[in-house]
Each structure stands twice: as structure tokens, then as C-alpha cells.
Design a protein that fits this description.
mainly beta, 9% helix, six-stranded antiparallel sheet, globular, single chain
Length: 110
């Protein structure tokens, strides 16, 4: 069984869960009706990933769904080519005098 995973370190736990294919659906949604193009940029695979395009509905909500292993991930949006941080979502310092959004994922019961 996977019972011994409870005692693994946080980094090792994430790596082992990824090995076993445990992915959590994460919905990124922002309301920016005036935008022409919105992209998601995040540290989802170690370093900064290439921007991912978001789809838009008829009411100005931009969205994308990713499946990620448990862990903590920094991200921000590119809105019409300019970096943008959602002030209504959790944020962390980016080390350069600004901020990024952050999402933390955990399996229920762990």
C-alpha cells in the first residue's frame, strides 16, 4: 500500500504521488471583460512554463483547467501581454519586489 507515504518529506511525497499518477483538477478563472487575450504563466513543472492560453465565455470570464500533483505553485496572468496578478487570490512575494499568485493543492485526509 501507500500508507508509508504519510512519513515521506513534502518534496518526496509530491514526487511519489506524481509517479503514481495522482493529479488534482485546478480551475483558473478570472473576470477581465476588457481583455483581448489572457495567458496563464506558472511554475507547474519546476521552472516557469510557457504561457498557456485561456478561453473566454460571453461574459468576460477567462478560464483554463490544469491537472497538477499536490504541491504549491506560483503563477500570474499575461493580460494583453502585460503581467497581471489577481488581487482576490492568495499571493506571495516574487523576490523581485512584486507578487505572484499561489495555489496550494493537497489530497483530502493527508
Amino acid at each position: 500500500g501507500l500508507r508509508w507515504l504519510r512519513w515521506a518529506s513534502k518534496g518526496a511525497l509530491g514526487a511519489l504521488l506524481l509517479t503514481y499518477g495522482v493529479l488534482i483538477p485546478v480551475h483558473f478563472t478570472v473576470h477581465i471583460p476588457q481583455a483581448e487575450k489572457v495567458m496563464l504563466v506558472g511554475r507547474f513543472q519546476g521552472g516557469w512554463d510557457s504561457p498557456r492560453p485561456l478561453a473566454v465565455d460571453g461574459n468576460g470570464y477567462w478560464y483554463v483547467q490544469l491537472r497538477l500533483p499536490p504541491g504549491s505553485y506560483e503563477y500570474f496572468y499575461l493580460v494583453d501581454g502585460e503581467p497581471w496578478v489577481d488581487v482576490s487570490a492568495p499571493r506571495v512575494e516574487d523576490g523581485l519586489g512584486g507578487q505572484n499568485n499561489v495555489v496550494s493543492l493537497a489530497l483530502e485526509g493527508w
